[in-house]
Amino acid sequence: MIPVLNKEKRIKLNKKRIDNLFVLSILIIPLISFAIFYVYVNLNSFVLAFQSIDVYGDYEWVGLKNITEFLNGLKGDSRVGLSVKNSLIYWSSSFFISMPLYLLFSYYVYKKNFGHSMFFIVVMLPNIVASFVYSLVYKMFVDIALPAFMESQGFANFPSLIYDDRTNFGNNIFYSIWLSFGTSTLVYTNAMRGIDDEIIESAQLDGANNFREFFSIVLPLIWPTISTFVITGVTGIFTASGSLLVFYNMGAPTKIWGFGYYITYTVKTAVGSDFSSYPAVAASGLCVTIITLPVVFFVKWLCNKLDKTEA
Q1: Interatomic CA distance for residues 61 and 279, integer angstroms
Q2: pLDDT digits (tens, 9 = 90+) for 217-267
Q3: Is the pLDDT of residue 11 over 70?
Q4: Count of beta carbons in the 10 Å neighbourhood of residue 219
Q5: What is the pLDDT of residues 134-176, one digit of tens each?
Q6: Rounded distance between C-alpha atoms, residue 126 and residue 185, angstroms
Q7: Domain spans in the chain, listed from the N-terminal domain onward
Q8: Quick one: 270 exposed, middle or buried, by C-beta within 10 A (0-12, 13-18, 19+)?
């Protein structure tokens, strides 16, 4: 009897060991990538946040000086404070305007209403065509074609939406929303198509209209998909910059900078071996990470709390 039990125990241990090896074989490459490209890189940035670099490339430990300067910069009209404020606006427009629109249009496509196929093609076009080509066509349209058309209709001196100070900020928001429409609509629509048809038919037999069906059935059942977008979206709350790099490269007007663009611009425009601005960028990134981390965990907890699919 004892040998039989020992044999069964060995079989279970071997099975567990094989399962663990299988899981490890799947995760080993992502874990190595995470260790090299996130932990190692950011560890260096973490140390750099407490240092300064002079014109000769020498490092000096300065403690909390860089962090203090970043926090002081948030209070005024400096590039840092302005870019963080703009990032909050970019993110808010994405969260409070884009996401509801994505869900509504996804539901429209899911219900196969009039013109849903044509609409799907239109919103997927930015994802089918290379982003560089699409942005180039868009720039030519708003800089050349649209002003010429509007002036032919009697609107003299129609501005360039990209370069005019009155429209460049709103144009960046609009283009970013439109560019991400296709991917979000595709994901949400596929999630809705995974809902059992019998649930929808049962609701319709009980007299549920589209409004009730959307809010009481569809949204709760695709909540895991929605919460994934919400959680990953919150990670960019302080770094959102829209499509500034696409339109301006390193020449975007300062007043429409996002914080992510500020970091890219500061690092990209470092002249020769003058890396003296790097510690300030590292400190600002560290501060933003520290602020964002609890926000992300809170949103994740809240999304799990609101998830009714687990019930």
Answers
A1: 10
A2: 899 999 999 998 899 888 888 888 888 888 888 888 888 998 888 888 888
A3: no
A4: 15
A5: 778 888 888 888 888 888 888 888 888 888 888 889 888 888 8
A6: 12
A7: 2-48, 77-306
A8: middle
Contact 278, 267 (CB under 8 A): yes
The region that residue 229 occupies, defined by phi over 0 for left and psi between -120 and 50 for alpha, beta otherwise, is alpha
Identity of residue 267? V
Angle at 96 between CA 91 and CA 102, to 5 degrees: 105
Nearest-angstrom CA–CA distance, 272 and 226: 45
The contacts of residue 245 (CB under 8 Å, 6+ apart) are 252, 261, 264
User: Average of pLDDT values for 104-126?
Assistant: 75
Phi, psi (deg, nearest 5) at residue 59: -95, 145
Encoded tokens for 117: 């196929």
Terminal-residue alpha carbon distance, the chain: 44
- Cα separation, 13 vs 9, in Å, equals 6
Residue 56 neighbours by CB under 8 Å, 6+ apart: none
Instruction: For 60, list phi and psi in degrees, rounded to 5.
Output: -140, 135
At the topology level, CATH places domain 77-306 in MetI-like fold (1.10.3720)
**pLDDT tens across 171-181, in order?**
888 888 887 77
1 secondary structure, DSSP code = -
Q: How many helices (H) and strands (E) does the chain have?
A: 17, 2
SS3 call for 295: helix
pTM score over 0.85: no
What amino acid is encoded at 271 in this protein? V
